[in-house]
Amino acid sequence: MNTMDNLEKQLICPICLEMFTKPVVILPCQHNLCRKCANDVFQASNPYLPTRGGSLTSGGRFRCPSCRHEVVLDRHGVYGLQRNLLVENIIDMFKQESSSSSKPAPERKEETPMCDVHEEEKINIYCVTHGVPTCSMCKVFGAHKDCEVAAITSVYQSKKAELSDGIAMMVGNNDRMQGIVSQLEEACRAIEENGRRQKTLVCERFDQLYSILEEKKTEMSQKVTVEQEEKLNYIRGLTRKYGDHLEESCKMVELGIQTMEEPEMALFLQNTKPLLKKLAEASNTAHLDKVERGYENMDHYTVDFKKEGLALRSLDFLQDDEDEDEEDEDGEASAEEGDGAPVVSAAAPASVKPAAPQPSPSSPSAASS
């Protein structure tokens, strides 16, 4: 019974000091408690929280009586702890073994096997040499007469103790394995959470790049729009001046034709002199600006984003061996994001070809011709 006692010690609750009562719960520190005992400890540590029969809306905490590890519970209390089905099964097996060992002796005698060679002899000794139970006749006259034998009761007790120790060792190993499984499951949850967080940070960094590109596109487009409007306004104004001059010239032509039809020579000569002066003035366009060749060209607003495209395609996560100072190259805005944000290499400044010298829209080289 010493071996059974050793196994029974492994199944004692540290609270009630009795064998675990199902259901048995396992704590995060891998120690076991009866659920009832765990609930008693929880209620004693959290006297102001409602019981499970009430409306428990927040969890509490208590310390493991074996290692003093703090156990944090959710709103389900001790009913949210995982059951240790392995320990519960071992308790059932232990109780079955205990009940079978307490059966009356006559029943055990009826189950004593007989020797296969000497059918009337009971197996009552153990052959140490071959490691099998046998009968006394086999030792005296049979196949085991030259073998070392021992009393079957002593071998039974030693083997039973060995088996009990093996079971106890397996219980400890299974507890450790269950702890490893819990750690691995926690690692999976941590990996999933960390992956979601890092993907969110990466998306935020790319959104920043999108914002910078949109701002730069608006700024550069505005530069083109400003010069476009200045040139259009100047050309439209010049068009109106030439139109007014043309209208005035047409009136002079009509007046000249009417004068040509005058039959009276004296009156004709009186009107001709001022008319010729007006025609000469109307024919002079020196006061009107002339548009320089190529004034309508806007090709000086040319960009080349090949380097920037290569830089964007080479974006990647920083390696562990890279200098941390490279993170500062992203600017103060990137530094304000805080630790843990993924850092990507910044693209080179946009290459814009310098604008060719252009005449001022207000006075585009007004050449007199």
UniProtKB/TrEMBL annotation:
The keyword Zinc applies. It catalyses: S-ubiquitinyl-[E2 ubiquitin-conjugating enzyme]-L-cysteine + [acceptor protein]-L-lysine = [E2 ubiquitin-conjugating enzyme]-L-cysteine + N(6)-ubiquitinyl-[acceptor protein]-L-lysine. It is found in: Cytoplasm; Nucleus. One of its GO terms (molecular function) is ubiquitin protein ligase activity. Residues 110-152 form the B box-type domain. It is an enzyme of class 2 (transferase). Its EC number is 2.3.2.27. Residues 13-68 form the RING-type domain. Residues 318-369 are annotated as: Disordered. InterPro entries: COS_domain, E3_ligase_FN3/SPRY, Znf-RING_euk, Znf_B-box, Znf_RING, Znf_RING/FYVE/PHD, Znf_RING_CS. Residues 260-318 form the COS domain. Its main location: cytoplasm. Residues 340-355 have a biased composition (Low complexity). The keyword Nucleus applies. One of its GO terms (cellular component) is nucleus. Residues 318-339 have a biased composition (Acidic residues). It comes from the Eukaryota. GO terms for biological process: regulation of microtubule cytoskeleton organization. Keywords: Coiled coil, Cytoplasm, Metal-binding, Muscle protein, Nucleus, Transferase, Zinc, Zinc-finger. This is RING-type E3 ubiquitin transferase. It comes from Gasterosteus aculeatus aculeatus.
